[in-house]
Specification:
The protein is α/β, with parallel strands linked by helices. It has helices at about 10-15, 55-65, 80-90, 160-165, 190-205, and strands at about 1-5, 20-25, 45-50, 70-75, 90-100, 115-120, 150, 175-180, 185, 190. It has an eight-stranded parallel beta barrel. Strands 9-10 form a two-stranded antiparallel ribbon. It is globular, with a radius of gyration of 16 Å. This is N-(5'-phosphoribosyl)anthranilate isomerase. Belongs to the TrpF family.
Length: about 210
């Protein structure tokens, strides 16, 4: 099980030292975690993910080049055509879907061949960063073999829930756990000790 720490802004070097598998940087100006500046050097072993909301392909490509992004995470209403253009250019694509109890999984089908991962987040007023989890049992109806990221308000108190989920059939294609706001002292400033404890506890439990 891989770990993604998203919403990086103020202390990426400290987070890098924890060696997550992915680090996410938000390029949506309305977000309090919006990154607009120099990004410190980060090991290429940790994949850099750029988070966008309805940005143009040109804007995305500019950020990919400027920040050395290896994947892009599309949080808006981006059509499959945009995903395909990026994927054809050799950029990893994560397409995000907001999930609620009545989520219609048929909307995934047009994206099946044009992205590398799905990311399931809690459907809320904002495109991500809403701070609360959706009912993961909805994923019992997951119809695809596409690997996905599990996101949406995941915090320390969810470790037992994550472990239960990971032993259920619907977790078969869960590629990574994505954490953000529940591990912050303020938007974009990660609580390193809390992240360290979360990662250690998960690794210890999963290695049993």
């Amino acid at each position: 099980m891989k770990l993604k720490v998203c919403g990086m802004k103020f202390n990426p070097v400290e987070v890098e030292a924890l060696q997550p598998d992915y680090m996410g940087f938000i390029f949506w100006e309305k977000s309090p975690r919006y990154l607009n500046g120099v990004l410190p050097s980060i090991s290429r072993k940790i994949k850099r993910v750029g988070v966008f909301v309805n940005a143009s392909v040109e804007e995305i490509l500019q950020k990919v080049t400027a920040y050395g992004l290896q994947l892009v995470q599309l949080h808006g209403q981006e059509p499959p055509e945009v995903c395909k253009k990026l994927k054809d250019l050799g950029i990893g694509v994560i397409k995000v879907f907001g999930v609620e109890e009545t989520f219609d999984f048929s909307i995934l089908k047009p994206y099946q061949d044009v992205c590398d991962f799905y990311l399931f987040d809690t459907k809320g007023k904002l495109p991500g960063g809403n701070g609360y989890a959706f009912d993961w049992e909805v994923l019992e109806n997951y119809p695809s073999t596409k690997p996905f990221f599990l996101s949406g308000g995941i915090g320390m108190e969810n470790i037992d829930d994550i472990l239960i989920f990971l032993y259920r059939p619907e977790s078969k294609y869960c590629h990574a756990i994505d954490v953000n706001s529940r591990f912050e002292t303020k938007p974009g400033l990660k609580d390193i000790e809390k992240l360290k404890e979360f990662k250690k506890r998960l690794e210890n439990e999963l290695s049993r």
